[in-house]
Amino acid sequence: MASTPTETSLSSYADVEWPLSRRGDVVPAECARLREKNPVARIRTLTGDDAWLVTSYATARQVLEDERFSLRDTAAPDVPRQYALTIPPEVVNTMGNVNSAGLHQEVLRAFGPRSGPASAQWMSARAHELLDTIVEEGPPVDLRQRFAEPYSAALVCKVLGLPYEDGLRLMSGLDLGFVTSPVVYDGCTANWDKDYAFVLRHVRADRDAQQGLIRRLCELRDDPERDGGDLTDEMLAATVTSLFGAGAMSTYVFLLHAVLTLIRHPSAMDHLRQRPEAMPDAVEELLRATLSIGDGLPRIARADVQVGDVLVRAGELVLVCVEGANFDPEQFPDPERFDPGRSPNAHLSFGAGRHFCPASAISRVHAAEALTALLQRLPRLRLAQPLDQLVWRTGNIKRVPERLPVLW
């Protein structure tokens, strides 16, 4: 039976501490408990606001696909929040701005692995260049600093049209842009302001000096046959800065989680080393089974919407717990088992609906090329310290290991 407005407003809070555990190697126990007993649960966020936490696959997909649930509105003033808005609203609004300005296809084209500037062959070459230095140095090596971060920076720079050295500079402060806090603090946007100003100089550079998506967006801005009045330098710089941050952070963090998962499943690692053609299916399972996303995907209800047994009221915050959905046994038989050949595998790690990640295709190739190269070049890849001694970052949107030291 649907909840009445009175029942909804009086719903008791779930017995769960939010945010969930920052450990990236163990699925939080609350996911299974809530999914079974209370798949749309009332919780208190980091800011003290009320929210609905969605943990089942069916309800998660409903929220992500229903356009009555808005990502853009999470940046609006006076709405309940997951945590304080410590980044400018335009960062949250980037894809909305891209869509409204008619740039969505350009972003999709730029991040397409076939038509875009970064082909699978290019990514493989970059991975092997980094591994040449790593192999020459010898173990142990911190795979985060020496491989995952620079490899991801190289990809995003290639697509956007930023020099690689500039990407490493942007990457050095990236963690500051993804801090979670219950309150806005002094300097919380300082890193964004610096990076935005840096990218704005590239947007305003001479056309001959521009490359990649930056050049294409500036060509559209200046096209006399197109009404480019809605494309300002500031909008383009905010778009590129946002795409760099989200793209580089998501790809390098997922890559670390993927490596860690394979290390914990040596038979799967051996299988993929012998049969690299099976890597694309393995990447899908790694996307499902890893916990890199961290916090729930936020949406604000624009209307009253029935979700499961709960009537979500307009203006309320809903958090989609992706790890809950991706481990739902109703959708994924034996979900705790890592199965590189799992099929079908309709995970929600790239979201769903209108806000499905535009970089999903290139991200898959990025991971497949990197993992294939790692398994080829680093035989007997393994952790250089006990698993339970890995340090997982707190106060961050993503579940990130501070270091991933490995031997081979």
Automatic annotation (TrEMBL):
Gene3D superfamilies: Cytochrome P450. PROSITE patterns: CYTOCHROME_P450. Keywords: Heme, Iron, Metal-binding, Monooxygenase, Oxidoreductase. GO terms for molecular function: heme binding; iron ion binding; monooxygenase activity; oxidoreductase activity, acting on paired donors, with incorporation or reduction of molecular oxygen. Belongs to the cytochrome P450 family. This is Mycocyclosin synthase. The lineage of its organism: Bacteria, Bacillati, Actinomycetota, Actinomycetes, Kitasatosporales. The gene is cyp121.
